[in-house]
């Protein structure tokens, strides 16, 4: 133990989670003034950095792909709880909240996070390798989940509008949960080796030392897991806290209200984004893909069953069907991702294409 570390953890990583949670408690339900808004933004950024740090400690202890799975699941579970809470209090205005949030998560993870990781990784390492079996399998599950849960409601006729009937929603929830459960089983048990990072042919001294550093003790890993949960609660809660200010700014700019959901999704997914970029910089692109595609799968696979159950007592309609513009963007994402994942190698070009698709999604969200 040194002056800068306590029980093997940096002091800042121990201080940030409780401080961010205190900021959340102080700001929850209040109208944010200038000073409180600055504190909330600072707490949000610090909580994201701390969350990534503790997620990497846990990942080092449990190994891959469990580390990336833990981070994706933790963020998604809290995000689902936030969606259900907002739907319960939002009335008819929240009818499309689950659809908008899940679709935004898919576009952010499959184009934004993946694109940034590909670009920064290829700028440093030129060409990066990943495992085709793992990434293409995750893409197949994601495509089926989005199509069955968000595209089909646009074309079904049992209920008016882009909605599922009760039995259809129950079926979609069960199918989503089963497919995600099978994916997790394959990822962690049956074909775990598919999801392990491809070890680079050569690494520098710092990377070699990091790859072979001693794993933290079980006590330290459990402590980091608890702090990770606190950080993620703070990230989602602070994102929700700034949403009224975001909504006011969006309305003042004359942009669609759905932009608020996109911005909140961007904030909530910051931990995965930072973790994926750090993995790509270390030439471990498979970890980045596990995070990006795994987060998309968790968002759909857990949200649809959750809102299906919550719809039993929630009032108001539940709109799940995507519009024509969103379906086109999703089809483009699937086509581009299929080509990207076909060879097992990624360059700057693939990353740039994904980022352009992501920029089109953001632009059309603001200017539909």
TrEMBL record:
Q: Where in the cell is it found?
A: Membrane
Mainly localized where?
membrane
One term under GO cellular component: plasma membrane
InterPro entries per record: Alkaline_pH_Ca-Antiporter, NaCa_Exmemb
Does the record carry Nucleotide-binding as a key word? no
* Lineage of the species this protein comes from: Bacteria, Bacillati, Actinomycetota, Actinomycetes, Propionibacteriales
Where is the chain membrane-spanning? 12-29, 35-54, 66-90, 102-123, 135-156, 168-186, 220-239, 259-281, 293-314, 320-341, 348-366
Q: Which GO terms describe its molecular function?
A: potassium:proton antiporter activity; sodium:proton antiporter activity
* Membrane topology according to the record: Multi-pass membrane protein
Per UniProt, residues of the Sodium/calcium exchanger membrane region domain are 34-188, 224-365
Q: Which UniProt keywords apply?
A: Membrane, Transmembrane, Transmembrane helix
Q: What is this protein called?
A: Ionic transporter y4hA
